[in-house]
Amino acid sequence: MENILYYGDNLEILKKYIKDESVDLIYLDPPFNSNTTYNVLFKDEKGQSRSQIKAFTDFWHWDEESAKTYNYLINNDKVPAKVKELIFALHQFLGENQMNAYLVMMSVRLIELHRVLKDDGSLYLHCDPTASHYIKLVLDSIFGQKNFRNEIIWAYSTSGRPKDRFPWKHDTIFCYGKTDKTFFNVKEVKVPYSEEYINTHFPYKDKTGRVYRKRFDAGKWRIYYADEGMIPNDVWEIPYVNSMSPERLGYPTQKPLILLERIIKASSRDDGIILDPFCGCGTAIDAVEKINKETNSNRKWIGIDITHLAINLIKRRIADKYGKLPNIDFKVVGEPQDLASARQLALEDRYQFQWWAISLVDGIPKDKKKGADRGIDGLAYYALPDKTIKIAIQVKSGHVKRNDISTFATDIDSEGAEFGIFITLETPTNKMIKEAVDKGFIKDKIRQEQIPRIEIITIEELLNGKIPKVQAMYGKTNSSYKKADRYNNKIENGYYKKL
Ligand SMILES: C[S@@+](CC[C@H](N)C(=O)[O-])C[C@H]1O[C@@H](n2cnc3c(N)ncnc32)[C@H](O)[C@@H]1O
Q1: What confidence tens digit (pLDDT) does each residue in 91-131 have?
Q2: What is the dihedral of CA 367, 370, 374, 378, to 10 degrees?
Q3: Whether residue 408 has its Cβ less than 6 Å from ligand 1
Q4: Whether residue 326 has a cis bond before it, omega within 30° of 0
Q5: Interatomic CA distance for residues 300 and 323, integer angstroms
Q6: Which residues contact 321 (CB under 8 A, 6 or more apart)?
Q7: Cα-Cα-Cα-Cα dihedral sign, residues 486, 491, 495, 499
């Protein structure tokens, strides 16, 4: 099996690609029901001011899709009776609102996740106090109360102190097994005792100087060494990935690596398969790779996300951190591979198409007024020894005409960019090509080559491997989501340190 990153709705992907009982560990961190819009932050050429773009929202509505899913859950023979009863009762109790839309959407996915989990596998579901009490009922109905293993409290400290209640400073992670055979390797995740605890609880020292204590456990005296560490309990104090954290990539809701490492080490074998169906910027994937590297193990991962922003970010995160093949090997499924699927994506979702197309020329999306067709869609930067070159990118999925090029030229100037790449799904007209040529060339003084100020390139050409001239000249862009630091294992203040 190879590592796979899927673009798409996890419900469809699970049904289409993931076999029954094929996964050892599932970690899922779905968008909560807390009514927030999450923006991805992009760095500009100086790495300072940032632009934001809406990545996803966790604002669920009871709509046609929820009603359809509710009816499926209530009426389909494949849905276990307990789940039907609960979904019906929740519908009676909650009515048709955001909370119930969220629960219905989660239930149908959790049924699929239960199907793909191996008998000795575990599922960790990350949620917050807004819906955790209902989610636990749903999990009980699908996995069975007897398979409940833990309610882990991830406690952190962030800013914000409301005046009318104690601040909410924790997330809840529910852990369920599938059967009573659940694999759990607690030795892998022991944490050191505090010095104070050792001083007060470990009174003995052996001949080699090791400090220990004796305890009467299960009918006999046993020796416990302080340096063996302790099994963590179910409250985990791990710092939040805040704006100062060196791990931070700018993707909203990014989770700390240490949190994922603990889950993966405790609940998967060296050759286990780990699935994250809401993988965001890929923290679970990064954690698998990190553990593999450090322990010479061979865990595999499957990541799924519904936005190209996440897919592109993960591709870069893994390459920035671990280098390229053969260090890391993974396949991406669901990105357009040919003209027909590119057209399909453009039809389904113009923004996803745009984000995908921009990634083909190594750019980053630029925020603009929603619905605005004019203006720059993306940017790319080259940091040369003496200056930074800025490239403006425009993506068109519909009909294109000569005027688009002159408008683009004006936009390039107002953006202060040197070059423009015009990506089009449709074939450009001869008039457009002439207009682009008329906008002139810039001569690269060192290489003595002419680069067009505006280059028109079609999606088909990009899919066939054509590289825009400006890119061929200067190599890979330096534009980026915030770059992931190269792999390191030094911890400082609870984070992996920047080296
Ligand atoms: C809370 S974030 C996950 C963050 C992740 N744990 C990390 O550390 O980066 C939730 C992610 O779920 C994705 N998502 C939402 N609905 C989805 C669906 N139906 N299928 C796949 N992904 C989905 C969103 O695009 C978002 O990236």
Answers
A1: 999 999 889 999 999 999 999 999 999 999 999 999 988 88
A2: 20
A3: no
A4: yes
A5: 17
A6: 286, 289, 484, 485, 486, 487
A7: negative
pLDDT (mean) for 425-445: 91
Best residue among 34, 54, 283, 306 to mutate for probing ligand 1's pocket (most ligand atoms within 8 Å of CB) is 306
* Beta strands at 235-237 and 148-155: parallel, antiparallel or unpaired: parallel
Q: Please, are residues 300 and 273 in contact by the beta-carbon 8 Å criterion? A: yes
Whether the Cβ atoms of residue 404 and residue 396 lie closer than 8 Å to each other: yes
Closest CA to 287 of 278, 299, 277, 304: 299
* 113 contact partners, CB below 8 Å, separation of at least 6: 14, 26, 28, 123, 275, 277
Q: Which residue has the tokens 């009573």?
A: 180
| Sign, CA torsion 122/123/124/129 | negative
Classified as helix, coil or strand, 65 is helix
Residue found by looking up tokens 């307990």 in the block = 82
What is the average pLDDT across 314-322? 88
Ordered structural domains, the chain, with CATH: 3-184+235-333 (3.40.50.150), 195-229 (no CATH), 361-474 (3.40.1340)
Does ligand 1 come within 6 angstroms of the Cβ of 143? no
pLDDT value of position 449: 81
Ligand 1 within 6 A of CB of 254: yes
Tell me the pLDDT band of 40, cut-offs 50, 70 and 90. low
DSSP H or E stretch at residue 396: strand 388-396
- DSSP H helix total and E strand total for the chain: 15, 23
Q: Where are the alpha helices (DSSP H) in 49-179?
A: 64-75, 81-94, 98-116, 132-143
Mean pLDDT of all residues in 31-48: 58
Concatenated DSSP letters of 354-383: HHHHHHHTT-EE----TT--SS--EEEEEE
Which pTM value belongs to this model? 0.86
Tell me which amino acid residue 467 is: I
Residue 38 has pLDDT above 80, yes or no: no
> Is the Cβ atom of 31 under 6 angstroms away from ligand 1?
yes
Q: In angstroms, what is the span from residue 469 Cα to ligand 1's centroid?
A: 35
Least confident of 165-174, 417-426, 446-455: 446-455
Q: How confident is the model at residue 324 (pLDDT cuts 50, 70, 90)?
A: low
Q: Residue 11 belongs to what H/E stretch? A: helix 10-17
pLDDT in tens, 452-484: 999 999 999 999 999 898 888 876 665 545 666
Share of the chain above pLDDT 90, in %: 64
What is the pLDDT, as a whole number, of residue 48?
42
